[in-house]
Amino acid sequence: MGFSNLSMNNVSGQILLGLLNGGFYALLSLGLSVIFGLLRVVNFAHGALYALGAYLTWMLLNYMGLGYWWAFFLVPVLVGLISIVIERILIAPLAEFDHLYGLLVTFGIAMVMQGGFQIAYGSAGIPYRVPPELTGGLRLSFMFVPTYRLWVLAVSIVACLGVWLAIEKTRLGAYLRAATENPNLSGAFGVNVPFLVTVTYGLGAAMAGLAGVLAAPMYAVNPTMGVDLLIVVFAIVVVGGMSSILGAVATSFALGLVEALTKMLYPEAASLAIFIIMIAVLIFRPFGLFGRHP
User: Fold this and answer.
1) Bridge partners of 126?
2) pTM of the model
3) Is residue 1 in a domain?
4) Domain count, the chain
5) pLDDT tens by residue, 203-225
6) Residue 176 and residue 200 in contact, taking contact as beta carbons nearer than 8 Å
7) Residue 93 burial (C-beta neighbours within 10 Å; 0-12, 13-18, 19+)
8) Does residue 294 belong to any structural domain of this protein?
């Protein structure tokens, strides 16, 4: 009986941990999915923008004395604005060319940003303290949950819900969907498609910046923090469907659960689980679980 209770406690703890990780994945994958949905560009710079959000959070504190709550509101805006400049100067001129060019440009942007972080701050991680208001935690019967992790989950859910409502239930969202389906026809009806593209890229990048703010107290801020995570996020977006918002969010939470339970049952396979699932999905449903057949 005691072993059974212990096993149930372990499972409950892993499920909760999976949901906490899934919320963080959802925030990043949703931004990537939003960008691909309109631009049809696989944005390799997304991981670097996530790292930029974490570095800006650290810079605001150490250079300007602005703490976590200032960063929470300012950094997503700053990352979004920086990304808009990048999109206008480097990505927009390639709109008429093959999408492979956009992929290569964003890959180059990521390498330049990562190298810049490494030159300026070194390869070692830089710590960032959890704000005092979010220290401590909640002691459950089966595990101790840090308050900050619950905060990250809550912010992720609210942000994902807000983006979904904005795209599915507002006039701007209707224009975005129309421009995605047929940009030429939308432009003929007076829709400013280049403006929508720029706004969409900025919005997706702002979500990566917000994820960077949330990540700064959880992980050491370092130049490569977005690289490994970006690989997982790409896998999530592929499994969910490259332009599906619902797919990105649902797959993120599902992956979080699969990853957590696999760590409990067979830890060596935890990092491979998502890629095995991705291969299976690509074989039997190449456009993703929630994607539409092209």
Assistant:
1) 221
2) 0.89
3) no
4) 1
5) 889 999 999 999 999 888 999 88
6) yes
7) exposed
8) no
